[in-house]
């Protein structure tokens, strides 16, 4: 298909993002869904967070969405959840986002969202308060700690069983790589112990008294995180797609558990990278047998899922040069020629929105081009490796294009500081 046909389709679809009628159209369309998935093309771009915040506020306040589930760890996000629901003071709000890459959630945009959510919740009964939760799998040790604290505080008969289960992990001294090698290569994993513990905690929130229900839910979600993390670290040693798939299946399971907790009519917002929320079947991920959250939810819930992708042409981003490195503000170069971002820039250097549910969608359905994806580790000099071949109108229901973007400014996370 020629560039002219693609550009003609873009021009017919694109709307100025900042116009109220444009946002109203998006909110009306998204507001009909049960799951609204809000993406990002990096984990360190300020505007991705601020625009998602703007949309989330309106969907919560105007459309009744009940919680935000993010690509973050359950324990640290649950600490923030308790703050926004008014159960703790400000010193605890972001204090647990202290593990690399802490800037993903310990940043000014999230602090502003937290304050808005706390204010939104302040006069509401507990059953009507909006929540904020993590659905990722990385919190192996932190989730174990939280389970033990929860059981000990209640004098639970399951405390001894939990301690026995977690003894299996002690030889690895909180080193995920060490555990993964031992479990994957030598068959010395802790899978059976974790599954046994999860079975004890599963569903306890249903019979808990009202004041303790969410804490019981948290214990179960922490047990699910331990189970997911154990499987993830055990399989990641093989360097194949299965560890990715385990992670995204876990995120969907955590999301569905939250939906069950909040009730049948609940509607949820999901914040995660485009590579998780955009349907993997519309990218080259499918060739590697990779699945993701967007695909799994669409397969199960169909039109009750509404995915909004994000991208930008150039700017700056917060990222590290290697895992665990000090975060830097890096330049994001102009998008490569004929990528999705460059085509949108060629159409005009302004922020815009495209919604694909109309007659023009069929034209873009035939086009697979590169779509930029930046992770927490980034090397701008290797720019061509950061593009995922994508059929954009099948990957998302709508796309937000921000022509120029800037890096997040991380907050310094210390007890009592944020």
Automatic annotation (TrEMBL):
Signal peptide: none annotated. This is Erythromycin esterase family protein. One of its GO terms (biological process) is response to antibiotic. InterPro entries: Emycin_Estase, Hydrolase/PRTase-associated, UCP036794_erythomycin.
